[in-house]
Design a protein that fits this description.
Length: 389
């Protein structure tokens, strides 16, 4: 099993190569399969060579990467044998490529190009180091590999192709970095914090407006500016809110940002949604406060409100508060739905066929029509209301 990460942009190309190898492996009846992970952030180092040829790190970036896991051991394992290394023989010494994570032994760099199978002494450019189940090494030439181990040099070469896909990892030289121009990933908290700072300074401006919040926050992120401590603290609040949000049935920018805060990283094209989140959090908190107030009022009413009078009884109600709940047009005309509360906290409901100008402080004359409980609150339904003179 081989595991390696590649730039997300290169994933399609790697898949194509692996598919081609899988097809070839099937021709040799060798099991070969692979899996690809979702995109995730990966830190890469970008290097440059100094005038004396030494390589040094010039920068680190977080980019989108995907992981490949390739099951391809059958290419270099059979009949108790494992090909451990390919040795390319040259006049100035050998080049050794270790296979399957096998450690390369120092003596392989200077070993002669002999073959333990045919024992024929002749110049060979390539030999293979093989290990049996007893942990013994045998070196065989390319043409004898198949006879000796049952492993074809062709499948061994395919294994080397898999290995080439992962060669060097994701760190790269500056030239390669520039030509790759990979999608970078940015810390979601930093983006959110800058968005908060920008909104605080200039107010929220939509993405299609001049100097939009997204644009200004993006500039600050790309310039590597430090967000304010307050911005970072609000960013954390936004992350906590989104991560614990019940996403069932939720659509819109908040929902889109949930996977971003879960991964902790975002690409530039996601900045617009993130830039809106300080506003979204503010609205969420206002909504939550309104709901909390409504619930507190309801609980208070559930405790205080009692049924008043008997059905048919004429009451005098000292109105403490009056509220038009809603109104609608029907077949018989408009209906206005009023709620009155008296000084003891009892609730009265009136389905009125005309508007009422009571605002509190008046005494209403009304007849009890019914008693009903709504959301745990006992309400007296009244009719034939009039403000007493
Ligand atoms: Zn041989």
């Amino acid at each position: 099993m081989e595991r390696f990460a590649v730039y997300a942009e290169a994933a399609e190309e790697v898949k194509k190569k692996l598919d081609r190898l899988a097809k070839k492996a099937a021709g040799y009846e060798i099991p070969f399969s692979y899996t690809v992970s979702e995109e995730h952030p990966e830190v890469v180092r970008v290097m440059d060579a100094g005038p004396d040829g030494t390589v040094h790190e010039v920068n680190r970036y977080t980019v989108a990467a995907v992981d490949f896991v390739v099951e391809c051991d059958g290419l270099i394992k059979a009949n108790g044998w494992t090909v451990c290394a390919k040795i390319e023989h040259g006049e100035k010494g050998n080049i050794v490529t270790g296979f399957g994570g096998h450690p390369v032994l120092p003596e392989w760099y200077s070993v002669d190009a002999g073959c333990d199978h045919c024992h024929v002494k002749r110049p060979r450019s390539v030999t293979f180091m093989c290990e049996n189940e007893q942990g013994e090494y045998r070196q065989v030439g390319r043409t004898c590999l198949k006879d000796y181990t049952g492993i074809s040099p062709a499948t061994t070469a395919m294994w080397a192709e898999v290995r080439d896909l992962m060669a060097g990892g994701m760190d790269c030289m500056i030239g390669e970095w520039e030509s790759r121009n990979p999608a970078q990933m940015y810390d979601v908290r930093v983006v959110l914090a800058h968005a908060y700072d920008v909104v605080k300074e200039f107010g929220y401006r939509k993405s299609d407006e001049l100097n939009s919040t997204r644009e200004m926050a993006t500039d600050r992120v790309l310039d590597g500016k430090e967000p304010s401590a307050e911005g970072l603290s609000v960013a954390q609040e936004i992350v906590d809110w989104l991560i614990t949000m019940d996403v069932e049935g939720i659509i819109g920018p908040e929902r889109d940002c949930v996977p971003l805060v879960q991964s902790g990283y975002a690409k530039r094209r996601h900045f617009g949604r993130l830039a809106y989140m300080p506003v979204a959090l503010k609205r969420h908190k206002e909504r939550a406060a309104r709901e909390a107030k409504r619930e507190a009022d309801r609980q208070m009413a559930a405790t205080n409100s009692k049924y008043v009078g008997a059905v048919g009884e004429r009451l005098s109600i000292k109105v403490a508060a009056a509220q038009l709940l809603t109104s609608w047009d029907g077949y018989y005309g408009t209906t206005w739905l009023y709620k009155f509360t008296d000084e003891s906290g009892n609730e009265f409901v009136w389905y009125a066929s005309r508007p009422c100008d009571a605002i509190g402080g008046e005494v209403l004359k009304a007849t009890v029509k019914d008693h009903k409980e709504r959301d745990g609150v006992k309400q007296t339904i009244i009719t034939r209301c009039s403000v007493a003179a």
